[in-house]
Design a protein that fits this description.
Layout (H helix, E strand, L loop, with lengths): L1 H16 L35 H13 L3 E4 L5 E3 L2 E2 L7 E5 L5 H15 L10 H6 L1 E6 L2 E3 L7 E2 L23 E6 L1 H4 L4 H5 L3
Antiparallel strand pairs: 1-4, 2-3, 4-8, 5-6, 5-8, 6-7
């Protein structure tokens, strides 16, 4: 009897530990009737190490709702003469959630597919991502860069014939963390989610 009670308590604790994401905020009464943001692809144009208010807010939100941890936002990466990584403007967060841990992977995929990229109850694709000002996501060899639909293949991980490469670097493949990109308005905390007061 005691063993059964301990098992039941353990099961409840396990469910609680990974239940922090909660219901989809996109369906909240404070948001559902507000105008929904369109898709954005705001490119970085410089290096600026100061963390924007929206990046700080997303970092805090992830800390409250997931069992991951902050790996950083700023890196002054310049890809070409006129092309920068969004990390250069601190408009991208790397959030540690290792896909090789099955429980963490389930939570990360729930966050991405059942919250950020889910339809709201009005049928709008990717509603929470758009309301937060998220314009890009990479995780576990999958990626999304705005537009209707969900995760596609992340090019680093796949050959031209579509087969997945072997011996991938887990960080370059984003297997050990979620990479999340914010639009200019998302980074400035000016999208509907951040204005709503939802936490």
């Amino acid at each position: 009897m005691l063993l059964a009670a301990i098992c039941a308590i353990s099961a409840i604790w396990a469910c609680w530990a990974f239940a922090g994401i909660g219901a989809n905020p996109a369906n909240d009464s404070r948001l559902i009737n507000k105008p929904l943001e369109g898709y954005r692809n705001d490119r970085a144009t410089r290096c600026d190490k100061q963390m924007p208010k929206g990046t700080e807010a997303l970092k805090s939100w992830l800390g409250r709702h997931t069992d991951g941890s902050f790996w950083g936002s700023y890196r002054c990466e310049k890809w070409s003469k006129a092309s920068y990584s969004l990390h250069a403007e601190s408009r991208a967060i790397d959030w540690a959630m290792d896909s090789r841990n099955s429980a963490i992977k389930r939570q990360a995929m729930k966050l991405i597919q059942k919250r950020w990229l889910a339809r709201d109850r009005r049928g709008n694709d990717n509603a929470l991502a758009r309301r937060m000002g998220i314009q890009g996501i990479i995780y576990n060899c999958r990626s999304w860069y705005g537009g209707d639909g969900g995760l596609g293949r992340y090019s680093y991980c796949f050959k031209d014939n579509g087969k997945r490469k072997k011996h991938l670097d887990p960080t370059a493949a984003h297997m050990d963390h979620i990479h999340v990109e914010l639009s200019d308005r998302g980074a400035k905390k000016k999208t509907s989610f951040w204005r709503s007061g939802i936490r």
